Amino acid sequence: MTTERREPVPDLDERTMLEGWLEYHRQTLAWKCEGLTDAQLRTAAVAPSTLSLMGLVRHMAEVERSWYRRVLADEDADPIYYTDEDPDGDFRVTETDTFQEAEATWQAEIEAARRNAAGVPLDAPTRGRHRRTGERYTLRWIHTHMIEEYARHNGHADLIRERLDGATGE
Known about the structure:
Layout: H1 14-33, H2 38-42, H3 53-72, H4 99-117, H5 139-165
Helix pairs in contact: 1-3, 1-5, 3-4, 3-5
InterPro entries: DinB/YfiT-like, MST-like
Protein name: DinB family protein
């Protein structure tokens, strides 16, 4: 499978532009994981870090779930990979963890995010509140934050991928 990434065209309305850049960055992370084995996807960037491509995918599943289910839609959605005792559990992958599971979970959270965002005005306050700050946000803020979150982690993914097999790209 080859992931196709398309930058949004420059003359879109704000919502379409935000959603276009979010999709572009989601596709970038998928692209960085293509063609690798589970062992490679579990490989940490550099000791002592536990950062791996599989860990990034699991982390982004958690981030999608947190913002679009808990905060935007006020759904009762427990964490998938982390706990209060292990807040970095999404990054701690084991030999038994598979990319097939991580990717399916991530894609399911992306679909839930799309469903929950559909039809919500960009400037409407969220139904839920952030669990740490107690604040409400807007969909505009969430989309912008998610673009930043993916862009930052895609930079990590680029370095990890280059370390694994020399593949580079924007």
